[in-house]
Structures are given as structure tokens and as C-alpha cells.
Specification:
The protein has 15 helices and 22 strands. With 591 residues, it is of the alpha+beta class. A hairpin with a 5-residue loop joins strand 2 (97-99) and strand 3 (105-107).
């Protein structure tokens, strides 16, 4: 099979890999029948941000915030971008909409007075933005149509000289023009785009996107002539020293930031708990620090035991609270449909029916102090609007009988099934040194053994997980997660898109590591991405998810844990889930 070249960002990610897609225009089909939900189960809570009052947050002070590493760029669309790129970019650049705790886009009045789209059914779709007239770049230049136009040119895919990931929606734009005055921008779409509110966030200045050469320059915001437009601007960017320093932007027009300064400090996961214990950090994501904690000296215990000890240590740190929530990511068991015996749909469906998702979620999440909420959708997280567990759409026929009919017989004494002398033993690709993956693999192995399917877990390091296995198809089953995006139809389409023949005739899988798809699923997701009516779009997503379940592409399991340690005198910080920090509010409580 042919595989598209992986970007550096995709190759570096392990439990959160994703890809862009575009809005599509096609008439919506009739509303599908309502799927039958599973019985009541614990609900995944995406985000743990304690309520706060700005009046109770004192002025001044320096916040110390942990990064994995100082990113090479703040351009989130560049191949070298990381999660830390996005964190810093949202402190420094405009986003017209902010996601709320359910992932719904909400206009940010610091940048946007209003935004209106033509109603469903009226073509062409036209979106009119009214920018906050006080919004300016750090060089004093107002935000304008030029910034929108340059970013569209860079991300639309029309000019291959731009080495950029192409987020959903930019390729659906037909034109961008100035409106009644400099604060009004009109965007006309050549096909409807349901995810239009997710565009232009972050918005970069035209000087950094207007040409491929400008776009490819290392973007380190506020330095080297790169304007920013947020509550903070960059006063120091030291990759070698592991520090990015942000200070209040004197031209900021919104509410005054509470902190004088934020020091983002490169602190590897294995050193985070020590740094918190030594009072060198105020805010620190610690999911990886806990999940991949090293075994005790002398080699006693395993990854699961080490993670429990690390979490207990974090919870016992004086003056620190561990906030926990279900992350905006969809952990799934992906089935490689291009490799026997999973080429047989009956085997894939029987395996999917045999996974005890509740047991698996309990094994994976309870040790992290989270509700054992099983995931039942390939497209939506538990807190997103329209979420529904569609797992019950699978044929209720006993999985064992289905495997019997497919020729996989179980010995009278029990044990692993066989067919033509071959045992039904499948490799399970798991991230190495992860307690979460270890617990999940153990639960899956025990559950599938009950129906005669044996699993052989294969731990793989991060650097080889995607390029060495997922991309090449060297696995039977794989355990990893995709980000839960704000526009499920467009964001998740590459994961389930039917592989197409490449120039040499071999299938190009792209981001579909299950290597199986259908025209119907593609069509449903395209229609959902173009459906402006919320109820109709939700119905299309349910229909698409139902078809993915029936295809036996993958089995949704749970949302990955998110753990963030925050010092007790810090307000407006926690486990953000779908939303993100409002940086002008994060600060120290008044004494």
C-alpha cells in the first residue's frame, strides 16, 4: 500500500494524531433513524476549571508555566508546530471565536463585535465579520481584510509553495473583501462550510503569511519584526535556555492582564513533579509525568505501579491542586482491515462487539481519579453537542457464533480459536512505557480472550509509532487517540476517508490507518461539513458514526485523561479540556 509522506508534526505525535480536511457541499440526505443508546454510563467531563472572579485576582506577579520545549515556531500551521506552539499562539494572536467547555465556538469580543452567516439553504454562503475597531497589532497596525486574505492564500492549498497544513474550510472560500469600512470583512464561500467559525483562529498578520517566504520564516512572535495582537507580547524567546517570556502588551485594548509577566519554562515531563515540589512552577500539565513515571529504584514494580505512585506524590505536594478531566481526545482501538484475518468484515465486527468498553474505561481511567466513562462515538467526545453512544447498532448476534460461521473454531476445551491451522492471535500496538496503555491493553486482552481472540501487545516508542507501524500497516490492532475537534465532520474525515488509488494505482491511506472506508461514509461526512443547520448536521454525524461502527473500522474506548497541577494561589487555571486559557485572567489570588 502507498502511504502519503508524513509531516514532522504527525510523526512526532503519539496519542494525538490528526489531519485536516475541507468543507464540502452536497445536498443532505433524509434524517436517519435514531440509533439506540447503551444503558446509562458515567459521563466524561471535559474540563476542570474552577470558577473565579477577576476582582479577587491581584495585579502583578510572574507566572511560571511548564512547556515540553520551546517551540521552533508559533505558526500552528507550520510542519514544525507542536502543542506548545498552539498554547503560546493563543496568548499572542487573535482568535475570533473561543471554544467553550463543550467545544462550541463563542465570539471573543476582544476581537469580534459580530459575525453573521447567511441562513441555511441560501447560497452562496456569506459571512460578515465586524472586527473590534480597537484591535491592533503590536506595531499599531489595525487588524484588517489584508490579514484575512493573506492567511486564506497561505492555507487554501492553491499555492503549493506554502509548506503548510491545510485546516478545514479555507479551500471552500471563494473571495474575501473589505466591507462597509475597515472593520468589516466579507467572506464568500463557493460551497457551504459548517465550520466557518473555526477559521482565522489564530489569525496571523499579513506580514507573516502574505508570501511563502514570509510564511516559512521561523515565527517567534514579537521578535524579529513579527507583530502580535494579544494581551501579552514576547520580550524573550530563548530556545537554548528553555524560556519564553511574555509581558503585557502596552497597546492591548482589552481588560488589563492580571499578571505582569508569564515565563514559559521548558520542563521535561520527568522533571515536572520535582519542579513543582521545589516551587519552580505554578502551572504544569502532568499527564505524561504520571503516565510515564519511571519505575522505582531497583526496578521493582511496573509502569502501572509507577504511575500510581507518581499521582499520589502529585496529590500530596503542599500548596498544589491536581485538576483532572477527560481530555478533548478520542482514544480508540484501530483495526487494520488490510491485514488478514481482519480483512474479513465478520471478524472485525465480531471483535468490535467483544470489546467491553466499560471494563476497559474503568481499568484505564479509574486509577487517574476519573469517572470510567466509555466512549461510544468515533466523531464526538462525551461533552460535545450531539454526542450519542452508537455502539448498539452492531448486529446483536453472539460474537462467538459469528466467528464460528467465519471459520474460526474454538477448541472444546476453550482457549484461542483457529482456522486452517492458524491461531486467532493479533498484535496490539501500544505506546511504550505508558501506564494508561498498559492498563488498556490488559483489559482488552482479558476481554477478547473470553471469546477466543488472543492479543499480543507490542510496545513501540513514540518516534516509531506512526512512521514505523501505523503508516506502513505493520500491525493488526493499534491503540492511540485522535484530537476531538470543534468541527467533527471535517476534522475527523481524514481518519475514515476511503483510501483512493495513487499515481501508481496502489491505495493511498492518508490518515486512515484502519485502511478501510466507503463512499457512503465519505458522502455523509462531506454533507455534514457543508450543513449549516445544526439539527440536520447532528443527524448526519450520527448516521456516519453508525456506518463506521458497522464497517468495523475501529472501536472507541474513552477520552484520554488530562491532569494539570496548579499552585493553590493561582486563579483561572486548571484542566481546560476543549476550552483554553483566558490569559489576561490567569494570575495570583489577592491575599
Amino acid at each position: 500500500m502507498r502511504v502519503r509522506q508524513l509531516t514532522a508534526a504527525a510523526a512526532a505525535l503519539l496519542l494525538a494524531v490528526g489531519g485536516p480536511a475541507g468543507c464540502s457541499g452536497a445536498p443532505a440526505p433524509a434524517r436517519p433513524p435514531e440509533p439506540v443508546p447503551v444503558s446509562a454510563a458515567p459521563t466524561a467531563v471535559t474540563g476542570d476549571l474552577p470558577p473565579y472572579d477577576r476582582a479577587g485576582i491581584r495585579e502583578g506577579g510572574t507566572l511560571r508555566w511548564a512547556l515540553d520545549a520551546v517551540p521552533a515556531t508559533l505558526n500552528v500551521h507550520a510542519p514544525a508546530a507542536t502543542a506548545d506552539s498552539a498554547l503560546l499562539a493563543h496568548a499572542l494572536y487573535p482568535s475570533l471565536f473561543r471554544p467553550d467547555r463543550h467545544g462550541r465556538p463563542v465570539p471573543d469580543p476582544d476581537y469580534l463585535e459580530s459575525a453573521e452567516s447567511t441562513p441555511p439553504g441560501q447560497l452562496p454562503q456569506v459571512v460578515t465579520y465586524r472586527l473590534n475597531p480597537r484591535a491592533v497589532w503590536s506595531d499599531g497596525t489595525p487588524l484588517s481584510v489584508a490579514d484575512f486574505t493573506a492567511q486564506w492564500a497561505a492555507l487554501s492549498g492553491r499555492d503549493p509553495a506554502y509548506t503548510a497544513a491545510r485546516p478545514a474550510g479555507y479551500d471552500a472560500i471563494d473571495s474575501i473583501t473589505r466591507g462597509a469600512d475597515r472593520s468589516e470583512v466579507k467572506v464568500v464561500f463557493r460551497r457551504p462550510c459548517a465550520g466557518w467559525q473555526n477559521l482565522f483562529g489564530p489569525l496571523y498578520p499579513a506580514v507573516d503569511t502574505a508570501t511563502p517566504a514570509a510564511f516559512d520564516r521561523p515565527l517567534t512572535g514579537g521578535t524579529g519584526g513579527h507583530p502580535t495582537a494579544g494581551p501579552f507580547t514576547v520580550s524573550g524567546y530563548d530556545a537554548a535556555g528553555g524560556r519564553v517570556t511574555l509581558v503585557r502588551d502596552p497597546l492591548w485594548w482589552g481588560e488589563t492582564p492580571k499578571a505582569d509577566r508569564i515565563d514559559f519554562l521548558a520542563t521535561p515531563a520527568e522533571r515536572r513533579l520535582d519542579a513543582l515540589d521545589q516551587d519552580r512552577l505554578d502551572i504544569a500539565p502532568i499527564t505524561t509525568a504520571v503516565d510515564r513515571a519511571p519505575a522505582a529504584p531497583g526496578g521493582s514494580g511496573d509502569a502501572a505501579d509507577a504511575a500510581v505512585r507518581a499521582l499520589r506524590r502529585a496529590e500530596a505536594l503542599p500548596g498544589v491542586t491536581v485538576h483532572r478531566a477527560a481530555a478533548a481526545s478520542l482514544t480508540q482501538l484501530t483495526l487494520n482491515a488490510a491485514r488478514a484475518p481482519l480483512t474479513d468484515p465478520a471478524v472485525r465486527q465480531a471483535l468490535a462487539r467483544s470489546v467491553d468498553r466499560r471494563r476497559t474505561a474503568d481499568a484505564a481511567l479509574t486509577p487517574f481519579g476519573l469517572a470510567p466513562a466509555p466512549l461510544g462515538s468515533h466523531l464526538l467526545a462525551g461533552d460535545q453537542d450531539g454526542y450519542r453512544d452508537n455502539g448498539d447498532v452492531l448486529d446483536p448476534v453472539d460474537a462467538g457464533r459469528s466467528l464460528d460461521r467465519a471459520g474460526w473454531k474454538r477448541p472444546a476445551s476453550g482457549g484461542t480459536r483457529t482456522k486452517d491451522g492458524r491461531a486467532l492471535v493479533l498484535t496490539l500496538l501500544v505506546p511504550a512505557d505508558s501506564a494508561l496503555a498498559r492498563r488498556t491493553a490488559d483489559a482488552l486482552t482479558a476481554g477478547l480472550a473470553a471469546v477466543g481472540i488472543a492479543l499480543r501487545p507490542v510496545p513501540v516508542p513514540a518516534e516509531a509509532f506512526v512512521p514505523g507501524h501505523l503508516a506502513t500497516g505493520d500491525y493488526d490492532l493499534a491503540l492511540f487517540a485522535w484530537p476531538a475537534g470543534p468541527d467533527p465532520a471535517a476534522d475527523q474525515r481524514p481518519v475514515y476517508a476511503k483510501p483512493r488509488p495513487g499515481p501508481d494505482g496502489a491505495p493511498e491511506t492518508g490518515g486512515n490507518y484502519g485502511r478501510v472506508g466507503t463512499e457512503e461514509i465519505d458522502r455523509l461526512l462531506d454533507r455534514a461539513a457543508a450543513e449549516l443547520d445544526g439539527a440536520a448536521r447532528s443527524a448526519l454525524l450520527q448516521e456516519a458514526d453508525t456506518r463506521i461502527w458497522q464497517l468495523g473500522h475501529s472501536v472507541p474506548l474513552y477520552q484520554r485523561p488530562e491532569l494539570v497541577a496548579v499552585r493553590d494561589d493561582v486563579a483561572a487555571a486548571g484542566a481546560w479540556g476543549f476550552t483554553r486559557p483566558r490569559f489576561q485572567d490567569v494570575g495570583f489570588l489577592a491575599r
